[in-house]
From TrEMBL:
Residues 90-282 form the ABC transmembrane type-1 domain. This is Carbohydrate ABC transporter permease. GO terms for cellular component: plasma membrane. One of its GO terms (biological process) is maltodextrin transmembrane transport. CDD domains: TM_PBP2. SUPFAM superfamilies: MetI-like. It comes from Fervidibacillus albus. One of its GO terms (molecular function) is ABC-type maltose transporter activity. The chain crosses the membrane at residues 26-48, 94-113, 125-149, 258-281. Belongs to the binding-protein-dependent transport system permease family. MalFG subfamily. PANTHER family: MALTOSE TRANSPORT SYSTEM PERMEASE-RELATED, MALTOSE_MALTODEXTRIN TRANSPORT SYSTEM PERMEASE PROTEIN MALG.
Length: 297
């Protein structure tokens, strides 16, 4: 009799445990949903504002129009100023973000491997100063960087901004990718060397495929950093042919007394769309990121 009672109590205990887990999950979803509401409403307001001529109380749209999106098919005029083509700005933004990603990933992967696997003079000091280099504010370097770019003939060029941004981003990317190399067992690399690979072939054909999530993560960060860059572009770019979407928005704002807020919200939404799609398709790689760069210092 006691045995039957104990057998009957097991499913009840399991159900009680599942019930507690479900309550915690539901509570977590409620809290996260509540905290996300302000962000969701901000995006919703941005969308309504971009496709309406007037909003009641600044919230409810009264009539819909695509006039605010006219920058897609014509060069917008604000006062006596004519803004450059949005498509030229979009191409320049892709060029900056893509070029920055290639430079940063190539250098960071090689530097991260060297810091993780090799012994050389100054390695420990270099590794410990990586975060300090990333934490150094770029605004403090603007004047010095201006003189350097001017001397090299790179002022008012996207290449100049790309190289400066890469120099500021590479330390952090190196720190991140080093953590992925640290997690690759030495036995794997030694096996490749025993099988006849030289060091470069073992690195390229055996180790690199194992750190693909890390490469994807620093690629995403690099692209987003290039896409959202504003300060360096605003300081070192003067020609409208080299304008990007970030500085295009600044030109829409221009004189604060003549701001077309409908146009501004539409252009802002256009600026965000590639980033949103980029995040949707790459979020799985971001979730696999490992920040163990301080391993084997």
């Amino acid at each position: 009799m006691n045995g039957e009672t104990s057998l009957q109590s097991i499913p009840k205990a399991k159900n009680a445990t599942l019930s507690r887990k479900n309550r915690k999950i539901i509570l977590s979803y409620i809290v996260l949903s509540f905290l996300s509401l302000p962000v969701f409403f901000m995006y919703l307001w941005l969308f309504f504002s971009s496709v309406s001529t007037e909003m009641i109380g600044g919230i409810i749209p009264t009539s819909f129009t695509f006039e605010n999106w006219r920058f897609l098919w014509e060069n917008v005029e604000i006062g006596s100023r004519q803004l450059p083509s949005i498509w030229q700005a979009t191409w320049n933004t892709f060029l900056l973000a893509g070029g920055l990603t290639i430079i940063e990933v190539v250098i960071s992967v090689m530097a991260g491997y060297a810091l993780s696997r090799m012994e050389f003079p100054g390695r420990t000091f270099l590794l410990r100063s990586v975060i300090l280099l990333h934490a150094f504010p770029s605004v403090a370097l603007l004047i010095a960087v201006f003189y350097v770019l001017d001397t090299l003939g790179l002022i008012d060029t996207l290449w100049g901004v790309m190289l400066v941004k890469a120099a500021l981003q590479i330390p952090m990317s190196t720190y991140i990718i080093k953590g992925f190399f640290d997690d690759v067992a030495w036995d794997v690399e030694w096996s490749a060397l025993i099988d006849g690979c030289n060091r470069i072939k073992a690195w390229y054909q055996v180790v690199i495929p194992l750190v693909k999530p890390g490469i994807a993560a620093i690629s995403i960060f690099s692209f987003l950093a290039g896409w959202s860059e504003f300060l360096l572009l605003y300081t070192f770019i003067f020609d409208d042919q080299n304008i990007t979407l970030a500085t295009y928005l600044q030109k829409i704002i221009g004189d604060f007394q003549m701001v077309d807020y409908g146009l501004l919200t539409a252009a802002g939404l256009f600026y965000m769309l590639p980033v949103i799609f980029f995040f949707i398709f790459t979020q799985k790689s971001l979730m696999q990121m490992n920040m163990g760069g301080n391993k084997r210092v």
